[in-house]
Backbone:
């Protein structure tokens, strides 16, 4: 995908999350998500941190070459529970709880997400950036942000049945990530739609017995990312 395409996908991903949370009452921001122990407000705070990281990263140019791309980046975040993941989850919950009202997180998200998208659009499409100990090409970095946003959007709406789902351009980026992690030697089951694929690839939905038969040996690679 071109740099422009990656920028459009990120903008769509962040705007879709904004549309989910903007009009939610505080009670709805305290509904559960697919992330164990996290309410909607907690998870939104986590995604807010990602948008803030985007602003820092896009202002942190690095000399190439890249040491990871938009797929191999995720191999440093394997699926399953980890001590680091548990510590972060606890920190995010406590940080979100420090707000006077859950809607306070929405206000900061609504300012930060568009700023991250603008910074992405102004970045050098041929440049490199550094984040989390890695160097990535700018378009690949945007793809990682979009993939995470799509996964967490689907996490957010599990108890919000009327909420919009991620858009097609953003979802396509997350699907491409899953395809890369699955490798050329396996094909996703034909019965999975794109969102189911993303949820199962991210370990949010368990594989069924039929899934395991269809995937064969590749079933052991799930979840593809954490």
Residues:
């Amino acid at each position: 995908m071109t740099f422009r395409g990656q920028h459009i996908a990120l903008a769509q991903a962040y705007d879709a999350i904004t549309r989910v949370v903007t009009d939610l009452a505080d009670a709805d921001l305290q509904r559960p998500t697919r992330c164990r122990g996290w309410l909607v407000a907690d998870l939104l705070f986590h995604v807010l941190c990602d948008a803030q990281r985007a602003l820092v990263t896009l202002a942190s140019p690095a000399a190439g070459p890249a040491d990871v791309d938009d797929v191999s980046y995720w191999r440093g975040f394997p699926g399953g529970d980890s001590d680091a993941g548990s510590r972060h989850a606890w920190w995010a919950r406590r940080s979100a709880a420090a707000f006077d009202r859950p809607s306070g997180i929405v206000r900061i998200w609504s300012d930060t997400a568009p700023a991250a998208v603008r910074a992405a659009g102004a970045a050098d499409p041929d440049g490199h950036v550094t984040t989390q100990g890695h160097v990535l090409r700018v378009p690949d970095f945007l793809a990682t942000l979009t993939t995470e946003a799509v996964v967490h959007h689907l996490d957010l709406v599990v108890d919000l049945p009327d909420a919009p789902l991620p858009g097609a351009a953003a979802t396509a980026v997350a699907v491409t990530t899953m395809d890369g992690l699955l490798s050329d030697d396996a094909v996703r089951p034909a019965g999975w739609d794109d969102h189911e694929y993303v949820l199962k690839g991210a370990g949010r939905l368990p594989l069924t017995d039929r899934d395991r038969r269809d995937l064969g040996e590749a079933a052991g690679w799930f979840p593809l990312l954490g």
Summary: The helical segments are 3-21, 40-58, 83-97, 103-122, 138-156, 168-182, 194-201, 209-215. The chain has a mean pLDDT of 94. The chain has eight helices and two strands. The domain at 3-219 is CATH 1.20.120.450 (Four Helix Bundle (Hemerythrin (Met), subunit A)).
